[in-house]
């Protein structure tokens, strides 16, 4: 009786285990009937920039810290007045930092030793500005330098609203992705594809920019700068490239 029970239990376990061992083969058959394909598409569009950002700095020296700061304040106020007169609104100006440090002179003494002597202080003020009149950028640079700016970093060009460009890039990327997936499907004997998932990444890039002039330069550009383009007064906005990177998953169907 005990032996019959054990045999019955073993038979039941065998019956239960059978579907499990067959499951991987069933999955493979299903995948073979409707395989999937992953397509990665990068679509980038270029357009001229419609805004530019600059960082302008004034610098002043004085015998004392307070004198250097006061002189720099007057110099900065004059420069800000010129920036406002050029049509830059207050919302497009932001102080990036005020700096004050000692100014030393190194004097040589007998024996080849150098002595560090405090001769005053140096104060500076850096302000970031944004202009939406890219075609008048050369005039703005002239006005700023004439008003007392000692250093100008930039410009950094940009697009105020990249969303329309990205929308068009998505449309093109989706069309390319479906076309490539259909090519794979047709090569494998299938007639259509069905989109299962979409993953997106965004790309944004601008061309290298150099601004030339006696007191104006891009801090990241190695000297000497290239010759200025006469029609743009030394400023070449170039084009901004923006777009999308899509990872598309399709299922092939008959």
Can you offer a commentary on this structure?
- It is elongated and about 90 Å long.
- The longest helix has 32 residues, at 2-33.
- The strands form two sheets. The chain has a four-stranded antiparallel β-sheet with strand order 3-4-2-5. The protein has a three-stranded antiparallel β-sheet with strand order 1-7-6, covered by helices on one side.
- It has helices at 2-33, 65-85, 137-146, 163-187; strands at 36-47, 51-62, 93-108, 114-131, 151-158, 192-206, 240-253.
- The protein folds into two domains: 34-50 and 160-208 and 228-254, Translation Initiation Factor IF3 (2-Layer Sandwich), CATH 3.30.110; 51-158, 2-Layer Sandwich (Alpha-Beta Plaits).
- The model is unreliable at 1-18 and 207-231 (pLDDT under 50).
- It is built from four helices and seven strands.
- It has 254 residues and is an alpha+beta fold.
Our estimate of the beta-strand percent is 35-45%
CATH evolutionary superfamily of the largest domain: Protein of unknown function (DUF541), domain 2
Q: What overall form do the CA principal axes indicate?
A: elongated
- What does the largest sheet look like? 4 strands, antiparallel
Q: Please provide the count of β strands.
A: 7
Counting structural domains, the number is: 2
CATH class of the largest domain: Alpha Beta
Annotated CATH architecture of the largest domain: 2-Layer Sandwich
Mean pLDDT: 81
């Amino acid at each position: 009786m005990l032996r019959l029970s054990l045999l019955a239990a073993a038979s039941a376990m065998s019956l239960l285990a059978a579907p499990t061992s067959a499951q991987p083969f069933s999955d493979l058959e299903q995948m073979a009937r409707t395989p999937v394909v992953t397509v990665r598409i990068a679509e980038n569009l270029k357009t001229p920039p419609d805004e530019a950002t600059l960082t302008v700095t004034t610098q002043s020296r004085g015998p004392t810290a307070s004198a250097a700061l006061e002189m720099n304040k007057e110099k900065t106020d004059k420069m800000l007045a010129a920036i406002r007169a050029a049509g830059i609104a207050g919302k497009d100006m932001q102080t990036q930092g005020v700096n004050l440090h000692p100014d030393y002179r190194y004097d040589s003494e007998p024996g080849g030793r150098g002595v560090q002597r405090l001769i005053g202080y140096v104060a500076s003020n850096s302000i970031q500005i944004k202009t939406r009149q890219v075609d008048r950028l050369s005039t703005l640079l002239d006005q700023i330098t004439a008003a007392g700016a000692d250093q100008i970093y930039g410009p950094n060009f940009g697009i105020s609203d990249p969303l329309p460009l990205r929308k068009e890039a998505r449309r093109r990327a989706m069309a390319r992705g479906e076309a490539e997936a259909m090519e794979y499907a047709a090569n494998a004997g299938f007639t259509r594809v069905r989109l299962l998932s979409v993953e997106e990444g965004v790309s944004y890039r601008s061309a290298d920019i150099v601004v030339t002039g006696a007191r104006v330069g891009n801090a990241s550009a190695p000297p000497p700068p290239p010759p200025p383009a006469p029609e743009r007064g030394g400023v070449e906005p170039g084009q901004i490239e923006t777009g999308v990177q899509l990872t598309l998953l399709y299922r092939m169907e008959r």
